[in-house]
Amino acid sequence: MTMATIVYSLSAKLDKISGKKEIMMRFFHGRINQRAKTNLFTYEEYWDQEHQTNRIPKVRVMSKEKSDLVIFLQKQNKELEAISYYINEAFINDGAGKVGLPDKWLATKLTERIQQASPVEEVIEEKPKKATTIDVLNHFLDVHPISASQVRQFKVLLRALQRFNLYTGTSIELDDLTADTLREFEEFLSTEYKFIGTDEEGKPCIKDPLYKEVYDQVPECRFPKPRGKNDIIGTMSRFRTFVKWAKKNHLTDAEPFNEYEMGQPMYGTPFFITKDERNKLYAAEFPDNPGLEVQRDIFVFHCFIGCRVGDLLSLKKSNVINGAIEYIPRKTKEGRPITVRVPLSPTAQEILERYADLPGDRLLPFTCAQDYNRNIKKMLRLAGIDRQVTVINSLTREEEQHPIWEVATSHMARRVLIGNLYKEVKDPNLIAKISGHVENSKAFARYRDIDEEMAKETILKLE
Predict the structure, then answer these.
(1) 397: left (phi over 0), alpha (psi -120 to 50) or beta
(2) What is the 3-state secondary structure (H, E, C) of 336-360?
(3) Separation between Cα atoms, residue 64 and residue 259, nearest integer Å
(4) What per-residue confidence (pLDDT) applies to 340?
(5) Is residue 328's pLDDT more than 90?
(6) Helices 105-116 and 64-93, interaxial angle, to 10°?
(7) Rounded distance, CA 34 to CA 62, Å?
(8) With 60 as the cut, is the pLDDT of residue 1 above it?
(9) What is the mean pLDDT of the chain?
């Protein structure tokens, strides 16, 4: 059997904090050509590209510093050998090229290896002086293995911190971070939208000249809008995660969150459409908008699968295995990857058969997430699904009543699966296995109070 080819090379990007570059892996076999990160960082001056390994320096006088360096490079070379063996073995176990591999196969396998292996010991270095919070946060994003969605969330934090620093005229070193600084940053998050006004034509514009200069340097895809308390708590929670990581990795001695009160997020009881409402939607026709019938099929299928929308958009025909959908949730890929298997109901199979002739490996004619959310609201409204539900206003944190179509989003499909299953089986472990929730998930715990009928059923047992 012809073995695959593995080639290592250094990333072009230099990490400002460690002075190292990440080792990248390229994997070849036939038409397979994938590249992914190894999470190993080394010094460019010791990297031997011809032999694709670290060059061990010959040292006349072996000081403690040189000894640490030699040990680090030797251990890293052994880890590269172990990674190559692991990937080749995984390739054989996954069919040795006789069957197609997912686009992210190499990245997934390397993530699994990273989780299993003990990290290579770093050379003991003096803690960087004058390392700003922004510098270390960029370093965190370069070296810490987190999912793509988490990277996007941390980059929102990064850009907000950059605007905060520019507007306040500060560049705070991580060691100088205090609880007062955190409170000032929280205030900036809650009031940033006030810099935005409207021009004579009623279009959004920046009122404050200084903030305009700041925003031109660090823009977002849209002007800042009022942020709810939950949103701000989420941002500050990610900030805390980063500071704890920096403390653990000896990049700071600061512990500003010890004296900072973050607060708790507030969520309402999850709402969802019932099985009857879902079936009513599936039977609905939209002759004036045939494209909406396609989106109806996708949403109903989504209600039977219950995955997150990011996973839904990435599903392919190859995810259909022996009458079920199998996938690894993106949210777990960078932690402890789990495979979720959801058996296909007759309705879900009917929908897949309807679109079986789609070209390539596409499972369904998915749209982008924003259009999908708009279409969900529209189709529910046109189908007459307008039951009133109680929700928590994210800004005021007060209860409000709305027709369900008005507050529906793609995430409601996940609640449809979980909520309706709860009515039938009341087994949280079984449902969590189907939904892909991790053990002791706080989000999953909210579903235990979703059904008034279940409460009535329990009370009747007292009679």
Answers:
(1) left
(2) CCCCEEEECCHHHHHHHHHCCCCCC
(3) 39
(4) 85
(5) no
(6) 130
(7) 40
(8) no
(9) 83
Predicted pLDDT of residue 243: 94
Residue 416 phi, psi (nearest 5): -60, -45
Residue whose pair of structure tokens reads 């109680």 in the numeric block: 390
**pLDDT score of 393 more than 70:** yes
Are 31 and 52 within 8 A, CB to CB? Answer: no
Please give the pLDDT value at position 165: 92
And the tokens for 61?
Answer: 């006088």
Q: Which residues contact 120 (CB under 8 A, 6 or more apart)?
A: 40, 72, 75, 76, 79
Cα atoms in the 13 Å half-sphere on the side-chain side of 179? 7
Q: How far apart are CA 321 and CA 408, in angstroms?
A: 30
Compare 306 and 96 and report the one with higher pLDDT: 306
Residue at token pair 């959310």: 373
369 pLDDT tier (thresholds 50, 70, 90)? confident
Q: Choose between 106 and 451: higher pLDDT.
A: 106
Place of tokens 């609905």: 284
Please report the pLDDT score of residue 451 as a whole number.
Answer: 52
Q: Cα 157 from chain centroid?
A: 14
Task: List, for residues 48-69, the tens digit of each pLDDT value.
Answer: 998 889 998 876 656 777 778 8
Sign of CA dihedral 139, 140, 145, 147: negative
State the pLDDT confidence band at 347, using cuts at 50, 70 and 90. very high
